[in-house]
Design brief:
The protein is of the alpha/beta class. The longest helix has 22 residues. The strands form three sheets. The protein has a seven-stranded mixed beta sheet with strand order 3-9-8-7-6-4-5, sandwiched between helices. Strands 2-10-11-14-13 form a five-stranded mixed beta sheet. A two-stranded parallel sheet has the order 1-12. It contains 19 helices and 14 strands. It folds into three domains: 62 residues, no CATH class; 114 residues, Alpha-Beta Complex (Aspartate Aminotransferase, domain 1); 249 residues, Type I PLP-dependent aspartate aminotransferase-like (Major domain) (Aspartate Aminotransferase, domain 2), CATH 3.40.640. It is globular, with a radius of gyration of 28 Å.
């Protein structure tokens, strides 16, 4: 019997294809060396059977263009958050205010990051944002590093490296990514000293730990990502500060969430703020820039001048410092809080939390009508879509018990739900929604008004409806 022909023998060589006019044009546009590498990748895929063998040499043009487009697509893409989770960690947490985005774009070039324009001498990046943090929290001094966990690690390293850190057993929390407070303490070169029990920790428990062990700091951790009810007891922040003053042990408050607005104004349960921690007299309060504050990723330390100076002087501070773009975005976000009403309007996180369900429902109905109109114009079958009430969450490890009444556009996808969800994610820009029992759920609370057109286009392009 004749041998089965090897299709790989029909694959042309790299040089032969590079000589084709279409390949020559691609090389001129993208660079010959890079296009050659992409062409080799295409040929490897054809040899491996991942692409069908083109009928002619010109058939490789389409494969190469696809390879170039895929390789040139950034890995980090903007997306529409239709999940109803406002601080969605996987989608980048807080979307930034327009003022923050503009400030970050301006800071992308040369600037006075570490240059004193008055004297012409070298300056310090640590002066940026600090006046605003102190103004808004009442702190004597402040320091900005690249995230909240880094800020906690820096504070503990500065105060308690080689010593103990007293933490309530009920505050040994786990944050996103599986990181836990005991691990952060260990990474700071400190020794964990747990006090009390899971549900009840008294001031006397801290006092005993300080008396019996070399404790360098008391760490009070805000349980922002879970709640505890029932037979519980906690030592108050004021009590801990008084104990610290008596024993010479500083109190560091890991607040995490970083709310600077009034929780009542947002319709949310009471939430401690950095200003409250500073007023209580803690040595340092630590909070995030990209959670409830609504800015870029950052960790902020605020408190006494001595506490901030000690953290700033530690060598670890340099390894954790922020870049100029982050500082610019954070400064612009903080400046909006000088007018709290303006902050509610301009900072997307606060605006989303404060949106009324009636307003969201009106937007959902208008969006559904636009989708129906576009599908009719395309000659596509209408979607089985209804507007219903649902519940949004704040997310980002904050307000674990809060549920915000919202309006949801429900699309009955049936057996096509998984395929349609994939199609929405593949849209440009991607639309990330939720699905439940064959229904696709799009929550208007986390869809910005200027993103509605993209959502309409994505829904209008779904195939196989009806």
């Amino acid at each position: 019997m004749p041998a089965h022909p090897d299709h790989r023998r029909a694959i042309p060589g790299v040089d032969r294809l590079l000589a084709r006019p279409w390949c020559h044009r691609l090389a001129e546009s993208h660079g010959r060396e890079w296009v050659t590498a992409r062409l080799r990748a295409v040929l490897d895929q054809v040899r491996a059977g991942r692409h069908p063998l083109p009928a002619s040499e010109d058939g490789y043009a389409e494969l190469l263009r696809g390879e170039i487009a895929a390789a040139g697509t950034p890995s980090l893409l903007p997306a529409v958050n239709a999940t109803g989770v406002i601080l969605h960690t996987n989608l980048g947490r807080a979307p930034l205010a327009a003022e923050a985005r503009e400030a970050m774009a301006r800071a992308a070039g040369y600037g006075n990051l570490e240059f004193d324009l008055g004297t012409g001498d070298r300056g310090s990046r640590y002066v940026h944002c600090t006046d605003l943090v102190c103004e808004l929290t009442g702190a004597e001094a402040a320091l900005v590093v690249n995230n909240c966990a880094a800020a906690v690690a820096l504070a503990l390293t500065a105060y308690a490296s080689g010593k103990g850190v007293a933490v309530s057993h009920g505050e040994l929390v786990e944050i996103g990514g599986g990181f836990r407070i005991p691990e952060v303490v260990e990474a700071a070169g400190a020794r964990l000293v747990t006090v009390g029990t899971t549900n009840r920790t008294r001031l006397a428990d801290y006092a005993r730990a300080i008396a019996s062990d070399e404790v360098g700091a008391i760490l009070k951790v805000h349980r922002s990502n879970f709640s505890m009810t029932g037979f519980t007891e906690d030592a108050g922040l004021d009590e801990l500060v008084a104990l610290g003053a008596e024993t010479g042990v500083p109190v560091i408050h890991d607040l995490g969430s970083g709310l600077l607005a009034n929780s009542d104004q947002l319709g949310l349960p009471d939430e401690p703020t950095p200003a409250m921690s500073v007023a209580a007299g803690v040595e340092l309060v630590v909070f995030s820039g990209d959670k409830l504050l609504g800015g870029p990723q950052a960790g902020i330390l605020a408190g006494t001048g001595a506490g901030v100076a000690l953290a700033k002087a530690h060598p670890l501070c340099r390894a954790l410092r922020c870049d100029k773009v982050t500082l610019a975005g954070l400064e612009a976000t903080l400046a909006l809080y000088r007018d709290r009403d303006r902050a509610m309007r301009r900072i997307p996180v606060l605006h989303m939390i404060g949106a009324t369900v009636d307003g969201l429902e009106g937007r959902a109905r208008a969006l559904a009508e636009r989708v129906a109109g576009q599908r009719a114009d395309r000659g596509a079958a209408p979607l089985a879509a209804v507007v219903s009430r649902g519940r949004s969450v704040v997310g980002g490890g904050t307000f674990p018990d809060a549920r915000l009444a919202t309006a949801v556009l429900e699309v009955d996808a049936g057996d096509a739900a998984e395929r349609w969800m994939a199609a929405l994610r593949a849209h440009d820009p991607p639309v990330v929604a939720r699905s439940r029992q064959g229904r696709i759920l799009l929550d208007l609370r986390t869809i910005a008004p200027d993103e509605e057109e993209a959502v309409v286009a994505a829904l209008a392009s779904l195939e196989g409806a009806g």
